[in-house]
From TrEMBL:
Species this chain originates from: Xenotaenia resolanae
Gene3D superfamilies linked: Metalloenzyme, LuxS/M16 peptidase-like (3.30.830.10)
Family, similarity comment: Belongs to the peptidase M16 family.
Name this polypeptide is given: Mitochondrial-processing peptidase subunit beta
Biological classification of the source: Eukaryota, Metazoa, Chordata, Craniata, Vertebrata
A Pfam family: Peptidase_M16
Amino acid sequence: MAASLQRLTSVGRYFLQRHLVKTRYFNGLPVGPRRLLATPAPHQVTLNVPETNVTTLENGLRVASEDSGLTTCTVGLWIDAGSRYENERNNGTAHFLEHMAFKGTRKRSQLDLELEIENMGAHLNAYTSREQTVYYAKAFSKDLPRAVEVLADIIQNSTLGEAEIERERGVILREMQEVETNLQEVVFDHLHATAYQSTALGRTILGPTENIKTINRGDLVEYITTHYKGPRIVLAAAGGVCHQELISLARFHFGKLPSRDQGEVPAPPPCHFTGSEVRSCLCFFGVFCYIFEILMLCSQNNCKSTQRADD
Ligand SMILES: [Zn+2]
């Protein structure tokens, strides 16, 4: 597994993911190849979809699987720890943490990790959305135990080395520049900022530049200890997956994660929909401006003609 390929894929997935407040786009996609066929009858869908098994472990971590008997599988950790769980000061930490996941653990260096995944013929990736941070692997079904062990290692034993943090800080700042040149990205960030004003959902996933420049190891460790708890995590797998085996692996690798009783699991902060509107236009001053309808910073009459031109 080439690190560059991995990061490129991660960024691509991130671009799609961050468009949605909830990750419905990906979570809602049919998983099995049969379900990708166009509009099957309801009874066909029911027949073709493997049963979903869900088990909750003692510490609150949920294990979910669909066994289709394939020779490959996808297994991942879906953690309720996206940017909506951040505050103004630590906004960007969840995404920063996701970047650090592949930079080495107490057991594996970054190179060891990359070689191990590559030699398995597997694929390891991650993304951060407003709602969740997700780490997942695609592998041969026979390698499911190793894939789960690697996932457990990267979220529980990451070294979070100072040198790697500094390197990733530069990577994220460059990623931010890339995002800012993508008008579609900018529009969706403005959409959230306007629809959920003064709430966590209104903030960006990457966080402001000043946060990216100042997030430190302590912030990352605090985010893990606060949010990476059993009730916040789903270990989900599909493909050639035995549910009982997945439960055993989950107990072995994630059984020590804190449960609800061991410290408070913070509830997501309330994010009310403010329902206002932002439009971009070229006003008669000849500069790019925004009309905040609620705040009425710019008269709509002044911008009327150029709004139509924009359309
Ligand atoms: Zn990123």
